[in-house]
Amino acid sequence: MKRALASGVRFAAPRHPLARALGHRLLLAVILLWGVSLLIFIAVNTLPGDFAATSLGRTATPEAVASIRQSLGLDKPLVTRYWHWVAQIFRGDFGLSWASQQPVSAQLGHRLLNSLWLAGASALLAVPVALLGGLFAVRYLHRLPDRIITLISLIILSLPEFFIGYLLIQILVLHVGVSTFPSTIYDGMSLPDRLSAMLLPVLTLAIAVLANMLRSARSALMSVTNTPWMETARLKGLPPLRILWKHAAPNAISPVLTVIAMNLAGLIVGAMIIEVIFVYPGVGQYMVDAVTVRDIPVVEACGLVFAAVYILLNLLVDMLAMVANPRLRFPK
To answer: For the whole model, what pTM was predicted?
Structure first.
């Protein structure tokens, strides 16, 4: 009877290792996002300069500056302003832009969509090239093609993103003339014009993350090819490309996908520099413009969105790794 009750209690309140691990990681992500929101709010509100004084100009009187600060709530304590901001976020409201007096949520949603288009197009270009380049490098390991691929990846890693962008402008715009600059897009734009405008930032962002993805794919495939069962496949006389494609690639896909997902998180955050270079209307450009005029609600919203996207993508990577772990899925 006691055993039945004990088994019933265990059945009613299961403690599966996978569920515990996923719940723990989710809780850490929420705590991390809260901590990042606190840091963003403190950092933004301690920036030098004052929106009230900047908007009124040098001839502003102290009374006029104090009146604007009171209307914007800048005269309240920092803690009160933080909790008011958090309460607004829970309602899906980032407030009004001080510069344009427009809802930040509406403007940010449109800009975020543009940034996601940019990051997604760059990923579609970089991921297949990285995977095929890794397979090709392992196929000709320690030979000339492998050395060329390794050298190219090292060169790309050593180049800053802005240098790659300016180099592409020099080549594709000034010499070849196949793209446009700046990369301005707008509603109602035809598809060929939109693709032409996005070509430069997409290429720059894809090249910037390609080297890290390529080296990771090569390392993952190399670790798989040194296993005994791969040696057995070679002894059977199977073609090298078939061995890599049918046997090595499926077993190396898990670590490669982890690196790719982490690079995708970097694509969203790293797109800010690319957007500024090419004047692309994304979240990064929106944030830089807001910093220029001390538009605090916009800067806070953009910073929080960048942090949330980065944390969310890393959370998905960790969860996928946990789900793929047999020790958590099938505990003894």
So the answer is: 0.74
